[in-house]
Design a protein that fits this description.
Blueprint (H helix, E strand, L loop, with lengths): L17 H11 L2 H6 L4 E2 L10 E2 L2 E2 L16 H7 L2 H21 L6 E6 L19 H16 L9 E7 L12 E2 L3 H17 L5 E4 L3 E2 L2 E2 L5 H4 L10 E2 L5 H7 L7 H11 L12 H12 L5 H17 L19 H13 L2 E5 L11 E4 L21 H9 L4 E4 L3 E6 L5 E3 L19 H4 L9 E3 L5 E5 L5 E4 L5 E4 L5 E5 L11 E5 L7 E6 L5 E5 L2 E5 L6 E7 L1 H10 L3 E7 L19 H13 L3 E6 L13 E5 L6 H10 L33 H4 L17 E11 L2 E10 L5 E11 L10 E10 L4 E9 L5 E3 L4 E3 L3 E8 L5 E9 L7 E2 L5 E2 L5 E3 L1 E5 L6 E5 L4 E10 L5 E10 L1 E7 L4 E7 L9 E9 L2 E9 L2 E9 L1
Parallel strand pairs: 3-4, 4-5, 5-7, 6-8, 7-10, 12-13, 12-26, 26-27, 27-28, 38-43
Antiparallel strand pairs: 1-2, 8-9, 11-28, 14-17, 14-25, 15-16, 17-18, 19-20, 21-22, 22-25, 23-24, 29-30, 30-33, 31-32, 31-36, 34-35, 36-37, 39-49, 40-43, 41-42, 43-48, 44-47, 44-49, 45-46, 45-48
């Protein structure tokens, strides 16, 4: 039989089910080929005609890292739209561009690592820009919409395969690979798991990526939750892709395992299918898997299970059916429809926080636009390269005319005088930027930053006036008059060579340090990217570890003066403030405060002092604590992508009525915040669900140019849930969107429950005078809580409020319904032991891993003293006579009833290690129902408490 007449192998036969085709292909792969597939960069198998495959293509708000693409608003901005349909359409556009880019560059992957569904529990999290909301219901709704758009609607073939990030309870960058999130069962099931679960159950998710952190003492990359929860939610094969470098962290930084073979085996057994480690070099992972096999830590069946899940994704993407794949010829890229969608998204993401009648602006108004973000269109780490751009200033020029708009950036302008009397000077460069402009004039900052072909700075008699841009916390950037930022390349030379600050390690940031001693006005200029100091040598200006230059700062203009000058001459002042997404709050770096940087606060004060008609537009990746007193209007938008400026100008002019809503609570001050590492949203009274203070602006808040009236709330009980309906009417004289929000509240719960909790929402567009009837189905599961005594959800019978309105605090309609449920009962502690982590309340306790494979235990924080409380424990009429505990480590366990004197003390001598549990017993006399208080002292782990009689 000739090669031309060989039969088609079953894995190439599109008539067969995917499962049979995967079986066939797996059987043809050798063990070495299967092992090689476990690395992110799976090699081709040429003898079978199977191509190479790469997991991972960033696509958070557009295709990232692969050059020019349509750039949509940041994820938190998409969350602010509260518009599921819009976000689905954005997902469709992003997946279409992914396919189009893939057709001309095979480095573009179809397994997209997006969206991020980590809940925005703490507003100081550096990656706040990547999530959608602090609320699990809103997060899952937006994430489900985006994944549906990314997946496409074909029943068999997916346009792209979305992977959710980052599993689980990940909300801090500080020591992110070594900190453990202590998440008690109620928080785990009612909060952190919910956003993932509801998105996975919707059926458009290809997999998840575990986070760098640990949860309850165990790294997420070996979490039993992947098996116990994630893969129990769906019948589909889900691909689990590690985060970059995380497999090595299991040994190198977390020291959870003592060899990489053990760590790799544990990750595979937990459910990790693709290892993102050591870049494109797969040899380390292959060596570790082979070593684990030799040592008996893994079986060939374990390898096969992981490869099977990866192949399931590849078949869904049509890789083996190019003639049948309906998405194979997708070429939609930077289309007029995508541009219009980017503008629509930017408009819908704008939140009007305050307005006392200043907005919308009249057609003949003279506007002064000022501030560090006024003429910026910022990108973040997960942005594509801009093809089009629109800054607030450009948007206002376009909308009102350049003759009616004045501008002052508000930066300080300085010359840096050396100790020899010369000044830093930026050499002139002809058409430097034009050399790196691509199609349609798109400037690629990756090609500009780090260049070594441009001349370094020098020092001469006149020097160059530089813009000194203060981003707070002593971090600043320096910019030449032609717009190029000072940057440091690998050779250590200082050049004006960056379009914007950026990169994994930002090379455009500096800090000015005062010199003590004889130099009264002397300053050192520290380069933050390298840690070195700027020095001036005969061959140019460099950054070095020695011989730093002592500079004198000569201010030629203060930013406040420029702002005051243009503000005084205008009818209205718009101060545009916020953050640069690469500075002071980003991946790897949490923020330290909610306050605006001091320099921006000074600009805001200068504008208000010069003109009472001042509005503030915050363009930021996260909330700020800004006093709105004295401001006529306040708006917020996340960095809005390529159409940000046009969108803002249209909202200011009234062409579009704002209808964005806050996806997270804006707190009034840092004092309102919990500790960054306190993941107990219930005990710490965190997010709008539990926060008992007065927020600066509440969750769901956002104003409009039109008033809306809510009427006719009706609630009907049905099998399995409630049918809720009401009417919304636009009583204003302009067409506008309204975001109707439905919340629930348990009236008299037996355990702490949310003050109110989002059950449903809908964004609707209404013409003046128009009404719409909205209806929602709310399942009974929405009213359940996780009963730690039973280890499962329970619907408590009683009264529940249904709250309808325009925000979590702006409730327009309410009614109460009585729901049947399962009555609570005391814990039967004679029949069921107390799991130590199943407490009702605690003090100074952290949850840790019982073993490296599964289970929870508890320990006092920092090995000190802590207390657990278990409410309503039933010892029976006959009572109990003994208590036993399973514990490891060293210390004491003291039990008391109802918080009274000690009833039993069990002392544990030092065990061999933290997982070497021993059972201790003591006599105790207890009958009836009591609260059990357990006090722990010392560095011990308590896993279980049991009673018998």
């Amino acid at each position: 039989m000739t090669a031309q007449t060989l039969p088609t192998p079953p894995f190439r036969d599109p008539r067969l089910p995917f499962a049979k085709r995967i079986d066939d292909l797996l059987a043809r792969l050798t063990l070495d080929e299967r092992i090689a597939f476990l690395h992110q960069f799976a090699p081709a198998v040429e003898r079978l005609g199977v191509g190479a495959f790469r997991t991972g293509q960033e696509a958070l708000h557009g295709v990232a890292w692969m050059g020019p693409a349509t750039v949509f608003p940041q994820a938190v901005g998409l969350g602010a739209t509260w518009n599921d349909d819009l976000v689905r359409r954005i997902g469709e556009a992003v997946s279409a561009e992914t396919r189009a880019m893939r057709s001309r560059d095979d480095r573009v992957g179809l397994n997209v690592w997006s969206p991020t569904v980590n809940l925005l529990r703490h507003p100081l999290w550096g990656r706040n820009e990547e999530g959608y909301s602090e609320d699990p219901k809103l997060t899952s709704a937006i994430a489900t919409a985006y994944t549906r758009g990314l997946r496409g609607d074909h029943p068999d073939y997916w346009r792209t395969a979305p992977v959710l990030k980052h599993w689980l309870a990940h909300n801090n960058e500080t020591d992110r690979d070594t900190t453990s999130s202590s998440v008690r069962p109620r928080v785990l099931h009612e909060y952190d798991l919910r956003a993932f679960r509801e998105t996975v159950e919707a059926g458009a998710v290809a997999g998840v990526m575990p986070a760098y952190n640990l949860v309850n003492g165990r790294p997420n990359h070996v979490s039993p939750y992947l098996r116990e929860h994630l893969r129990a939610w769906t019948d589909q094969d889900l691909l689990v892709c590690s985060d970059a470098g995380a497999p090595s962290n299991l040994v190198d930084s977390e020291h959870y395992f003592d060899t990489h073979e053990k760590a790799t085996a544990a990750a595979v057994l937990a459910g990790v299918d693709s290892f993102t480690d050591h870049g494109t070099d797969s040899s380390k992972i292959v060596e570790r898997v082979q070593g684990a096999l030799v040592q008996g830590l893994l079986s060939e069946a374990d390898i096969e299970a992981a490869v099977r899940r990866q192949l399931a994704i590849r078949f869904r993407l049509g890789e083996f059916d190019p003639q049948s794949d309906p998405h194979a010829d997708t070429l939609d890229f930077d289309t007029p429809a995508h541009r219009a969608l980017a503008q629509e998204a930017a408009e819908q993401a704008i939140v009007l926080l305050k307005n006392d009648g200043l907005l919308p602006l009249g057609p003949d108004v003279r506007v002064a636009v000022v501030g560090l973000l006024a003429d910026e269109c910022k990108l973040d780490w997960y942005s594509g390269t801009l093809i089009h751009r629109s800054t607030p200033l450009e948007g206002l020029y376009e909308r009102f005319g350049a003759e009616r708009v004045d501008f002052a950036e508000g930066v300080d302008r300085v010359r840096l005088r050396t100790s020899r009397g010369t000044y830093l000077s930026v050499p002139a460069v002809d058409d430097a930027a034009d050399e790196v402009r691509g199609a349609e004039g798109a400037l690629d900052p990756a090609l500009l930053a780090g260049r070594t072909d441009l001349p370094p700075l020098t020092a001469d008699a006149t020097g160059t006036e530089l813009a000194l841009i203060d981003w707070g916390q002593g971090v600043l950037t320096l910019r030449a008059p032609d717009g190029r930022y000072l940057s440091v390349a690998e050779d250590g030379c200082l050049r004006a060579s960056a379009d914007q600050p950026g990169g994994w390690v930002v090379q455009e940031t500096f800090r000015i340090e005062e010199v003590s001693g004889t130099h009264e006005n002397g300053h050192l200029l520290k380069h933050l990217g390298t840690g070195g100091y700027v020095s001036v040598a005969a061959d140019g200006v460099k950054v070095a570890a020695e011989n730093p230059e002592i500079f004198e700062l000569e201010f030629t203009e203060r930013g406040e003066d420029a702002v005051a000058r243009v503000a005084a001459a205008a009818d209205v002042v718009l101060v545009v403030a916020g953050n640069d997404p690469h500075i002071n709050g980003r991946e790897t770096e949490d923020r330290t405060t909610l306050r605006l940087p001091g320099h921006q606060e000074r600009l805001l004060r200068a504008a208000r002092a010069a003109n009472p008609n001042t509005a503030l537009a915050l363009v930021s990746a996260y909330p700020y604590a800004v006093d709105p007193a004295g401001l006529r209007a306040v708006l917020w938008t996340a960095h809005g992508g390529q159409a940000a400026g046009t969108a803002l100008a249209r909202v200011l002019a009234g062409d579009v009525s704002p209808a964005g809503r806050l996806p997270q609570t804006w707190y009034a001050s840092d004092d309102d915040l919990p500790g960054l590492l306190d993941y107990d949203v219930i005990g710490g009274r965190q997010t709008y669900l539990y926060f008992e203070g007065t927020p600066l602006f509440p969750f769901g808040h956002g104003l409009s140019y039109a008033p809306f009236v809510y009427t006719d709330l009706q609630v009907r009980q049905r099998v399995g849930g409630l049918a809720v309906s009401f009417t919304v009417t636009n009583t204003g004289d302009v067409a506008a969107d309204e975001v109707a929000q439905l919340y629930t509240r348990a009236v008299a719960p037996s355990v702490p429950r949310p003050r109110r909790e989002l059950a449903a929402h809908r964004r609707v567009h209404l013409a003046p005078g128009a009404s719409t009837d909205l209806s929602f189905e709310v399942p009974l599961s929405a009213f359940e809580f996780w009963d730690v005594a039973l280890g499962r959800p329970r619907l408590e019978p009683g009264a529940y409020e249904m709250l309808v309105g325009a925000s979590s605090e702006d409730v327009r309609l309410r009614t109460t319904v009585e729901l049947d449920g399962e009555p609570g009962a005391p814990r039967p502690v004679r029949e069921r032991d107390l799991g130590a982590a199943d407490f009702d309340e605690h003090r100074n306790i952290a949850i840790v891993d019982r073993t490296k494979v599964t289970g929870d235990a508890v320990t006092p924080v920092d090995g000190g003293a802590g207390e657990l409380v278990f409410r309503h424990c039933d010892f029976g009429d006959g009572g109990v006579t003994s208590v036993t505990v399973d514990a490891a480590g060293e210390g004491s366990v003291e039990l008391s009833l109802d918080g009274g004197p000690s009833n039993a003390v069990l002392t544990l001598g030092a065990t061999k290690g933290p997982y070497d549990y021993t059972t201790l017993g003591a006599e105790i006399a207890a009958a009836g129902v009591h609260d059990v208080h357990i006090r722990l002292r010392g560095p011990l782990r308590l896993a279980r408490v049991g009673f018998s009689g």
